Amino acid sequence: MAKHGKNTVASKALVDRTREYTPSEAVKLMKEAKRAKFDESVEVHIRTGLNVRHADEQLRGTIALPHGLGKEVKIAVFAKGDKAKEAEEAGADIVGADDLAAKIQEGFMDFDVAIATPDMMPVVGRLGRILGPSGKMPNPKVGTVTMDVSKAVQESKAGKVEYRTDRTAIVHMTLGKTSFSDEQLLDNYRAVMEEINRAKPSAAKGKYIRTVTLASTMGPGIKVDPTRLKDLVDTEAGAAA
């Protein structure tokens, strides 16, 4: 059996695995349990009660986090002519058409978001087996297949991220970095939870949100009470008064 290092053991010892913490407590504990020397990402994992085998119970959308992700977002755009020029002017990192598709088929994946104009989808569609599993396949439902490439690029650069349930009905999202202030992380957390609740499929049955877990990249998972979102909003409102 593999042995854990002293730092890992010390981090896990700080967390009561049988308890659900308030969002504020979870953020503070996550930072206290941090042991890595680099600026770790902060992740939230939301286990839903959805049956994702049914099309009407799948969850997918986009959200612009109030404080972004704390990292540079690399954008690849599939476009030609004026739309390619528009994407470049908006700040896209790589722009192309068949040449970009060929590059991806050869293994290039150094980008976070892919955007395409509708006329490029026959080309992009051939990359489904490559872009699909990594969550980078352009999709009109989340605004990454559009003629308004300038807006799509700018929104992605500003921190607009996609979310969706995986095969086990869990939504995995990044909230920012451990270097973010508690308030910034809580703002992003609140925005995510409000969006997930807003997007609840009408066909959902039973308990919608089962568990919420907060963690840094190398840190232990911390269970968060999903019912305490209103308390978080009330607390922040009181603090601002």
Could you outline the blueprint of secondary structure elements for this entry?
Elements: H1 6-13, H2 23-32, E1 41-48, E2 60-64, E3 75-78, H3 81-90, E4 94-96, H4 98-105, E5 113-116, H5 121-125, H6 128-131, H7 149-157, E6 160-164, E7 170-177, H8 182-198, E8 209-216, E9 222-224, H9 229-240
Parallel strand pairs: 3-4, 3-5
Antiparallel strand pairs: 1-7, 1-8, 2-6, 8-9
Describe this structure in words.
This protein is an alpha/beta fold. It folds into two domains: 16-68 and 161-224, Ribosomal protein L1/L10, rRNA-binding domain (Ribulose 1,5 Bisphosphate Carboxylase/Oxygenase), CATH 3.30.190.20; 75-158, Ribosomal protein L1/L10, domain II (Rossmann fold). It is built from nine helices and nine strands. The strands form three sheets. It has a four-stranded antiparallel sheet with strand order 7-1-8-9. The longest helix is centred in the last third of the chain and has 17 residues, at 182-198. The protein starts with 5 loop residues before the first helix and ends with a helix. It comes from Solirubrobacter pauli. Protein L1 is also a translational repressor protein, it controls the translation of the L11 operon by binding to its mRNA. GO terms for molecular function: rRNA binding; structural constituent of ribosome; tRNA binding. Part of the 50S ribosomal subunit.
